[in-house]
């Protein structure tokens, strides 16, 4: 699904009017109706609209207009509606204009009484800092919410005061439970601090014709999209159908990496997993990973060319190669990597395994000048912000702010790689400048080894013939989906997940894409 900027959204609206006669009032009717439908769908089956007290905060522009249309639909379905028109300071309770008492007192009572408050103050048209009286109004809502957790907060299009292009927020903005955004998610939702204000994201249909495509090069990865990307599993198949993955991962201080990555490649469906390990390391893997096969390499004190040669000899027929997790950073290991890269560059496209470089694979490379010129075509690299900084001459890379998007896009083109920049909303940029962002996040993933799982999943998809951009996108989405499943099944929240907990839930995350609403 496209992600749009404010100006891209405005262009779409203008085109809808010019080319299809879809005027602003028509779009607003559609917007308000779909917001009402999504709101109701979220209530069910726990609550119904009958008798539900909903207070709408109505702003002066089209965002307020959307709110009014939505309110009318909810009223017709039996909700008890109050409307506060901010600019006019006018309060209407169940159709009656309240004029007897000072509006401030009445409004405070309405806030205290409401089951839900709908923020339809400002949307993409916000053009300056919020005025004091709007901040004060939002502060009242926030205060009530901190007193009463059952009060539901929903924003139409976006939480008021959030910059839809950058994710910056006004000091008066408040975080909501659900944002019902219209037509397309806005770019600023995916970056901090804005990301924290959105709550659950719903996308309302405003009836733009399918032929009207945004010009944006940025997409949100959706479950429906991933579902379509997943490799078919024909009845008439065998392990050869689903590709072989070779992993050059793990070393004495970090043996778990190869296990986690290899296991994850198998869990997304790859046909055969081979760990390239030394004899010294073999007993560890053989006892913990029964399904793996092994390519035995000379010990780490052997000449680098012998170690590289042993791996290269085994590589024929492999569809994917993962280099890096837990590999260590000795000069000898760096030499091995360079020789393997040289070999891969020399192979024709159809004979070359797809390459993923992660972790120490990247750390080894970042020490070299113009390291990217050493990569074979279509490589996927998967840095976290620290590794990205090292790859980019030491610049500081943001963990979640908007600058990371431009950086990833620019570097993917400069380096001609598929660049997966990890973080809370992980993003992926390909060499032609297209980007995809993962909306779903789960801080339980902020624990050692989860990156190895992700790298393994990408390799497993590459072995099954997915393109590098798609393999990275699907893996990122499913990685967070698997983490959500772990949370649900282990009854945990934001802490306590082990990377290995993800493994059995990866196949379930694949199945669940069938039922994705987004
Ligand atoms: N134009 C269209 O065709 C559609 C618009 N839609 C809705 O329209 C919204 C955008 O509408 P608008 O462009 O009217 O913009 P908004 O409704 O977001 O706000 C613009 C109004 O707020 C005032 N304003 C701006 N910044 C302010 C501030 N800091 N403090 C106080 N007042 C401020 C402006 O003077 C203007 O009156 C979207 O977010 C969406 O909700 C949707 O209905 C879909 C279709
Ligand atoms: N707060 C968070 N929300 C969502 N995902 C996160 C969060 N923190 C970390 N992650 C994910 O966890 C993984 C961590 O990878 P990485 O830093 O490489 O760890 P390691 O090398 O220890 O495996 C990445 O996929 C990252 O996107
Ligand atoms: K709003």
SSE layout:
Layout (H helix, E strand, L loop, with lengths): L5 H15 L3 H20 L9 E6 L3 H15 L3 E6 L4 E4 L2 E2 L5 H11 L2 E5 L11 H16 L4 E5 L21 E5 L12 H4 L1 E5 L13 E3 L2 H7 L14 E5 L7 H12 L4 E7 L3 H7 L4 E5 L6 H11 L5 E4 L7 H16 L7 E4 L1 H8 L13 E2 L3 H7 L11 H13 L2 E4 L5 E3 L5 E3 L12 H14 L4 H23 L8 H4 L3 H7 L6
Parallel strand pairs: 1-2, 1-5, 5-6, 6-7, 7-8, 9-18, 10-11, 10-13, 11-12, 13-14, 14-15, 15-16
Antiparallel strand pairs: 2-3, 3-4, 16-17, 17-18
The protein binds ligand NAX, adenosine-5'-diphosphate and potassium ion (K).
Bound heterogens, unique: ligand NAX, adenosine-5'-diphosphate, potassium ion
Beta-strand percentage range: 15-25%
Main sheet makeup? 10 strands, mixed
Radius of gyration: 26 Å
Approximate helicity band: 40-55%
| CATH fold topology of the largest domain | UDP-N-acetylmuramoyl-L-alanine:D-glutamate ligase
- What is the typical, i.e. mean, pLDDT? 96
CATH superfamily of the largest domain: Ribokinase
Physical arrangement of strands within the biggest beta sheet: 9-18-17-16-15-14-13-10-11-12
Tell me the total number of β-strands: 18
**Net shape:** elongated
Task: Put the structure in a nutshell.
With 518 residues, the chain is α/β, with parallel strands linked by helices. It is 41% helix and 15% strand.
């Amino acid at each position: 699904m496209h992600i749009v900027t404010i100006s891209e959204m405005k262009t779409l609206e203008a085109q809808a009017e010019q080319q299809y006669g879809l005027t602003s009032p028509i779009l607003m009717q559609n917007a308000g109706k779909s917001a009402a439908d999504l709101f109701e769908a979220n209530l069910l089956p726990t609550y119904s609209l009958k008798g539900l007290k909903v207070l709408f905060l109505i702003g002066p522009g089209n965002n307020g207009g959307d709110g009014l249309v939505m309110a009318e639909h909810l009223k017709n379905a039996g909700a008890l509606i109050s409307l506060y028109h901010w600019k006019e300071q006018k309060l209407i309770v169940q159709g009656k204009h309240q004029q007897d008492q000072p509006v401030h007192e009445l409004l405070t009572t309405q806030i205290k009484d409401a089951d839900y408050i709908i923020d339809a103050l400002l949307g993409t048209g916000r053009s300056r800092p919020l005025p004091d009286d709007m901040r004060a109004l939002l502060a009242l809502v926030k205060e009530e919410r901190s007193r009463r957790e059952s009060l539901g907060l929903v924003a139409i299009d976006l939480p008021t005061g959030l910059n839809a292009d950058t994710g910056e927020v006004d000091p008066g903005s408040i975080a909501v439970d659900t944002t019902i955004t219209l037509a397309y998610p806005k770019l600023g939702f995916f970056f901090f601090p804005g990301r924290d204000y959105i709550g659950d994201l719903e996308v309302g249909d405003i009836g733009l014709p399918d032929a009207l495509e945004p010009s944006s090069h940025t997409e949100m990865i959706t479950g429906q999209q991933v579902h379509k990307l997943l490799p078919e599993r024909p009845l008439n198949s065998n392990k050869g159908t689903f590709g072989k993955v070779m992993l050059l991962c793990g070393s004495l201080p970090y043996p778990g990496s190869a296990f986690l990555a290899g296991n994850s490649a198998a869990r997304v469906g790859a046909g055969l997993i081979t760990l390239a390990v030394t004899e010294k390391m073999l007993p560890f893997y053989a006892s913990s990973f029964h399904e793996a096969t092994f390519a035995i390499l000379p010990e780490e004190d052997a000449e680098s060319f012998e170690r590289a040669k042993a791996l290269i000899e085994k590589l024929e027929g492999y569809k994917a190669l993962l280099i890096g997790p837990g590999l260590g950073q000795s000069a000898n290991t760096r030499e091995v990597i360079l020789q393997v890269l040289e070999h891969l560059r020399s192979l024709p496209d159809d004979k070359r395994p797809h390459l993923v470089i992660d972790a120490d694979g990247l750390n080894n490379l970042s020490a070299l000048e113009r390291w990217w010129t050493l990569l074979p075509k279509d490589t996927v690299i998967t840095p976290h912000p620290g590794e990205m900084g090292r790859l980019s001459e030491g610049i500081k890379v943001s963990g979640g702010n908007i600058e990371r998007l431009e950086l990833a896009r620019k570097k993917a083109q400069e380096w001609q790689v598929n660049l997966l920049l990890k973080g809370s909303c992980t993003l992926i940029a390909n060499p032609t400048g297209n980007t995809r962002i993962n909306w779903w996040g789960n801080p339980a993933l902020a624990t050692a080894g989860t990156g190895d799982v992700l790298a393994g999943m990408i390799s497993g998809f590459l072995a099954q013939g997915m393109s590098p951009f798609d393999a990275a996108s699907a893996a990122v989405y499913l990685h967070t989906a698997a983490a959500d499943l772990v949370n649900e099944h282990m009854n945990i929240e934001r802490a306590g997940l082990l990377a290995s907990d993800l493994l059995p839930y990866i196949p379930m995350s694949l199945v669940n894409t069938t039922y994705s609403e987004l």
